[in-house]
Design a protein that fits this description.
Membrane topology: Peripheral membrane protein
Structural class: alpha/beta
Distance between the termini: 46 Å
Largest sheet: 6 strands, mixed
Number of helices: 17
Oligomer: single chain
CATH topology of the largest domain: Rossmann fold
Radius of gyration: 23 Å
Strand content: 15-25%
CATH superfamily of the largest domain: P-loop containing nucleotide triphosphate hydrolases
GO molecular function: ATP binding; ATP hydrolysis activity
Shape: globular
Strand order of the largest sheet: 6-7-8-3-9-10
Keywords: ATP-binding, Cell membrane, Membrane, Nucleotide-binding, Repeat, Translocase, Transport
GO cellular component, one term: plasma membrane
Pfam families: ABC_tran (PF00005)
Length: 512
């Protein structure tokens, strides 16, 4: 590849923000037609670097070359015009538009003849269907985005980029919501795209996946490149972890059993109906005891989100009962459930976990605004909220210049650590954890797993939903499989494999 012009070359990129240097003298070369993986812990500067490459921010120092030509992107439109597309970890879709409308927004095809000037929806629909079939993305162009799960939303984002003719595709944590079979399918698609000359910049914390799909690997640590163009055949995941965070690769695992006989949460015949009357949660019954982590495995869109919302009181239960701590809470408000000690880590931190414009201490109060240390009597206790936010930042290693910065200023992983710290405060009795380590680097994963293990040992009851099957298997005392809204299997996490669990999630077969 040395004789050809690189697809992208970043030279001595430096970017400073008040109180922090996000990127410092970064050098990165991405050759044409390769899958180049970029690894680094949250807060290492990957997102800032990608925003610079995509025209969302401008570097203070350094330069960018695309196909051998120096460029200075002022907006993402400039980057798109040069064939660079980006699929963000946090999606940028309009919920009230269809898949088709989201994909073509800003790139609408126009009709010919008497239809000149009008949007050619038929042509766009056919092209999207062809692309969906070609890349195995399985997206219906005519459904509203607000009805889609996280995994489906990601596929729409990928379609948006491909629709615009991207030749360099930046993928930020693309496998975070996929089961193993879907990951293999995606990797097959990436190899096909690479064979056709497409260049892929693949950002991931999942080091085994990086080693599986990448042609070359670069590592960023604390804002600078510490390794570039590593050969995946010559490096191990353990070595990558050491380069990223200076420690060994953590593994999710529970040690001695802490499960008690005290049932904290019991669902009995819980049913939730969709607007048309179809059950999206279908007679679900399960128990979670104090000191127990119950895992729930399922492909996105099989009722997990609706089940969580019913437990939290966000969604009405159409049948069945929810018993918490011996009390029937089926008709309790969300606020009452929260005040009774139910903590909640939502699957989408931007949509449901944070107010991005708010400061860290203001976000500390969300969902806990009626309890100390956030209030004193009827008044907001700013001093108490700020003091406790400082504690969370320290104990959960939230990397931030201070507690007065907006949540949007943090990397995704540090935002997640702030949410976990908030929800683990106030001595909760039950934790609903939806994808608690999604988009988190190996160091932060280990920290969150340690906090869950300690809380479990202290008697916390946990319902764990995750797309990371290794996490589900390693961190669960009991493991259920949900398919089309029903619990179809209970497996022993000490014996089941990720492959067998993935098969059970896609068909009501025997996962053992």
């Amino acid at each position: 590849m040395s004789d050809q012009v690189a697809a992208v070359r970043l030279t001595s990129i430096t970017k400073r923000f008040p109180g922090v240097v996000a990127n410092r003298d970064i050098n990165l070369t991405i050759e044409r037609g390769e899958v180049h993986a970029l690894c680094g812990e949250n807060g290492a500067g990957k997102s800032t670097l990608m925003k610079i490459l995509y025209g969302m921010q401008r570097p203070d120092e350094g330069g960018i070359e695309v196909e051998g030509e120096k460029v200075a992107f002022r907006t993402p439109a400039d980057a798109i015009a040069r064939g660079i597309g980006m699929v963000h970890q946090h999606f940028k879709l309009a919920d009230n538009l269809t898949v088709l409308e989201n994909v073509i927004l800003g790139a609408e095809p126009r009709g010919k003849g008497w239809r000149r000037g009008r949007i050619d929806f038929a042509a766009a629909r056919e092209r999207i269907r062809e692309m969906s079939r070609a890349y195995g993305l399985r997206v219906d162009p005519d459904v509203l985005v607000e009805t889609l799960g996280v995994g489906e939303r990601q596929r729409v984002e990928i379609l948006k980029v491909l629709y615009r003719g991207a030749r360099v595709l930046i993928l930020d944590e693309p496998t975070a919501v996929l089961v193993p079979q879907e990951v293999e399918e995606l990797f097959g698609n990436l190899r096909d795209l690479r064979a056709e000359g497409l260049t892929v910049l693949f950002i991931s914390h999942k080091l085994d996946e990086v080693l599986s799909v990448a042609d070359t690997i670069s590592v960023i640590r604390r804002g600078t490149t510490v390794a570039t163009r590593l050969d995946p055949a010559q490096v191990t995941s353990r070595r990558l972890a050491e380069l990223m965070v200076g420690s060994e690769l953590p593994t999710p695992e529970l040690r001695e059993s802490t499960v008690t006989d005290d049932v904290e949460l019991e669902l009995s015949g819980l049913t939730v109906l969709a607007p048309g009357g179809r059950p999206v949660v279908d007679e679900v019954s399960l128990r979670i005891r104090r000191g127990e982590i119950v895992g729930l495995a399922g492909v996105e869109g099989n009722g997990q989100s609706e089940l969580i919302e019913a437990i939290m009181g966000i969604r009405h239960a159409d049948a069945g009962t929810i018993t918490y701590g011996g009390d029937d809470v089926t008709h309790w408000t969300t606020r009452r459930r929260r005040e009774a000690g139910i903590a909640y880590i939502p699957e989408d931190r931007h949509r449901h976990g944070l107010v991005l414009e708010g400061t860290l201490w203001e976000n500390r109060m969300l969902g806990h605004q009626t309890r100390r240390p956030n209030v004193r009597g009827p008044w907001v206790d700013r001093r108490g909220a700020r003091r406790d936010t400082t504690r969370i930042v320290r104990e959960y290693d939230v990397r931030t210049p201070g507690i007065d910065v907006p949540a949007a200023a943090l990397s995704g992983g540090n935002q997640q650590k702030l949410i976990v710290g908030r929800e683990m405060s106030g001595e909760p009795r039950l934790l609903i954890a939806a994808h608690p380590t999604r988009g988190i680097d190996v160091g932060a994963q280990a920290a969150i797993w340690d906090h869950l293990r300690q809380a479990r040992a202290d008697g916390l009851a946990v319902l764990l939903i995750s797309a990371d099957l290794e996490e589900l298997i390693g961190m669960s005392d009991t493991l259920h499989v949900i398919l089309r809204g029903r619990l179809v299997a209970e497996v022993d996490p000490r014996e089941v494999t990720p492959q067998a669990l993935g098969s059970a999630m896609t068909a009501a077969g025997d996962p053992s």
